[in-house]
Amino acid sequence: MGERLLMKGNEVIAEAAIRAGCRHYFGYPITPQTEIAHYMAKKMPKVGGVFLQAESEVSAINMVYGAASTGKRVMTSSSSPGISLKQEGISYASGAQLPAVIVNIMRGGPGLGGIQPSQSDYFQATKGGGHGDYHLIVLAPSSVQELYELTVDAFNLADQYRMVAMILGDGVLGQMMEVVNFRDEEPIVKADKSWAASGHGMKREHNTVTSIHLDPAVLEQWNIALQDKYKTISEKEQRFELYKCDDAEIIIVAYGSVARIAKNVVQVAREEGIKVGLLRPITLWPFPTKAFEQVIDKPNAFLTVEMSSGQMLEDVMLAVKGRKPVHFTGRMGGMIPKVDDIMAKIREIRAD
Amino acid sequence: MAVVFDRPHALVDIPMHYCPGCTHGIAHRLVAEALDELDIEGRTVGVSSVGCSYNNYFYFNCDMIQAAHGRAPAVATGVKRSLPDNIVFTYQGDGDLAAIGTAEIVHAAARGENITVIFINNTIYGMTSGQMAPTTLLNQVTTTTPYGRDAKEHGNPIRVCEMLSTLKGPAYIERASLHDIKNIKKAKEAVKKAFKVQMAGKGFSLVELLSTCPTNWGLDPLESLDRVKNEMMEYYPLGVFAGKDLEV
Fold first, then answer.
1. Partner residue facing A66 (CB), from B42, B77, B106
2. Chain B residues touching A92 at Cβ < 8 A
3. Are the C-beta atoms of residues B21 and B218 closer than 8 Å to each other?
């Protein structure tokens, strides 16, 4: 049996990264994720690792780019405005096919917005974010235990597919404390790093890490290779949880901390005699379309709930393909949807 | 037959894309000679930037990383912190280093990051066809200062070596010039010393090389060399700005 500890979400992300073999962290302070940096600053020197507070988010992501280029496991973390600043580097890392883990503990936007939890960076995380045709693997934990497990998985997936993996959490998950059960040993995937720029020792041809290909025919081939990789990931890596969907007349679709609230709604609704289920995407990219194919026949309607204006809603509609009605309710700006709000929407849907 | 002159091993045997009279080729050779003479090619990782030298990873035989515009010092920091026993250098132009990358170079220098920076100052943006650089001299005509650089309108040119030498982080900063043989020899020693400073773990080193851009200056190669000597060196004096007494 591994350790069983009561820990804060942000600290668990940092601990998970270290357990996953990450020894390089570059960051810049921003609420509500700064505890990740605090934890790294304390722990990294004790495990022979590097914690460096960069002069900006832009520099932090480029330090990540440098460390990733050498083949080391590396992470940075931030919250919404800081993640916007990192987009340049994320696009370059995606273009250069570099593995790295980026954590976004979302807060309300746009602009400087606020510091309360939000899910309004869904489009940015899942549709590219920076310039160019690329994707990140986007993992959406819903508990502190999952912050741990998915952070370890993020490093493995990043290495395995040579790409950026993002943990997309929100201020609730980052700040909440829960019990986490640690494994004695992490399932670390060893990936080929023969492409890394780490000094050739006069033993091989020199390696180059780059995202520029001025010949359009070459750049197109590079893009085709990226898209082929994304296709493989879409087929193999979709993750989701189905909760009481078998007999549900309404299926809520929610991720992250909102999925926790939605689980309560399922209970409350069922006590009222309304059969409600929950479809919880765990990978936001690739979006778990397979989950919808499993449940599509039974419900009368889907209800997407988000802490945004309805961003995942578009992916839900694409997955449902017009076969059933898709409804939406949500809050913005750092406000959290309550069980009562969601129940009211469910009653409204049934009354129609 | 004894070989008295050859291509450095650290330089790949392919034609370079630089314009006739451009001094990038000389600067590349000086870096490659330093890697050869110090026998560090195998453990060196270079970081290319954005500008005319964006693809010098084709020319250097060591492992190379291409960085975003201005971010090479941050990328190099990530590399050096991951591979502390390796030798890491950036190769950056004046737009890259002194405009869009000002924060990165200042903080890498302030941290005393143990990397070497080769800084090419030709007072202009070459790759995007001759716009004003932070180092463009007053009255210099560029495509974005068609009536000449005016201090009131465009500000004054930045002296990078002088600015960075106010910090405590840098171990060695020198400005050299590539306009004649005598100065190229001095530049060679400066470049080599910068790498030796890094090898000795002394901290941040930077060599600014006054360079030409005949194409965008509208001058022929010889006139360009004269401009470096007669116009640039007045505002950008040669010399050691940090680490004067440093022995490596």
1. B77
2. 67-68
3. no
8 Å CB contact between A193 and A161: no
Q: What is the DSSP string of B192-212?
A: HHHHHHHHTT---EEEEEE--
How many Å apart are CA B73 and CA A60, to the nearest integer?
Answer: 11
The answer to whether the Cβ–Cβ distance between A63 and B78 falls below 8 Å is yes
Assess contact for A256 and A228: CB atoms under 8 A: no
Q: Where are the beta strands (DSSP E) in chain A?
A: 4-8, 24-27, 50-53, 74-78, 100-106, 137-139, 164-170, 177-181, 208-209, 240-243, 250-253, 276-281, 283-285, 301-306, 326-330
Chain A environment of B77 (Cβ under 8 Å): 52, 59, 63, 66
pLDDT of residue B1: 79
Q: Nearest C-alpha of chain A: how many angstroms from B182?
A: 32
With beta carbons less than 8 A apart as the criterion, state whether A209 and B57 touch. Answer: no
The answer to the question of residue B234 being in a domain is yes
Instruction: Check if the beta carbon of residue A209 is closer than 8 Å to that of residue B76.
Output: no
Q: With H, G, I as helix, E, B as strand and everything else as coil, classify residue A220.
A: helix
For residue A1, the model assigns a pLDDT of 65
Q: For the sheet containing A24-27, what is the strand order?
A: A50-53, A24-27, A74-78, A100-106, A164-170, A137-139, A283-285
The full set of domains in chain A, from first to last, is: 4-236 (3.40.50.970), 240-351 (3.40.50.920)
Number of domains making up chain B:
1
Residue B96: give its domain's CATH number: 3.40.50.970
The reply to whether B5 falls in a domain is no
- Structure token pair of residue B223: 């006139």
Beta-carbon neighbour count of residue B92 at 10 Å?
31
- Tell me whether residue B16 is in a domain: no
Q: Is residue B215 part of a domain?
A: yes
pLDDT tens per residue across span A265-320 = 999 999 999 999 999 999 999 999 999 999 999 999 999 999 999 999 999 999 99
CA–CA gap between residue A238 and residue A281 (Å, rounded): 8
pLDDT (tens digit per residue) in B97-132:
999 999 999 999 999 999 999 999 999 999 999 999
**Interface contact A69-B78, CB threshold 8 A:** yes
List the domain range (segments joined by +) for residue B117: 24-242
Residues 6 or more apart in contact with residue B162 via CB below 8 angstroms: B241
Contact A67 B81 (CB under 8 A): yes
pLDDT, tens only, B13-49: 999 999 999 999 999 999 999 999 999 999 999 999 9
In A, minimum Cα distance to B67 occurs at A210
CB contact under 8 A, B81 and A65: no
Question: Which of A24, A207, A208 is opposite residue B82, by nearest beta carbon?
Answer: A24
CB-count burial class (<10 Å; 0-12, 13-18, 19+) for A6: exposed
* Closest CB to B83 among A55, A58, A70: A70
Strand runs labelled E in A236-325: 240-243, 250-253, 276-281, 283-285, 301-306
What mean pLDDT is reported for chain A?
Answer: 97
Compute the distance between CA of residue A11 and CA of residue A13 in angstroms, rounded to an integer.
Answer: 5
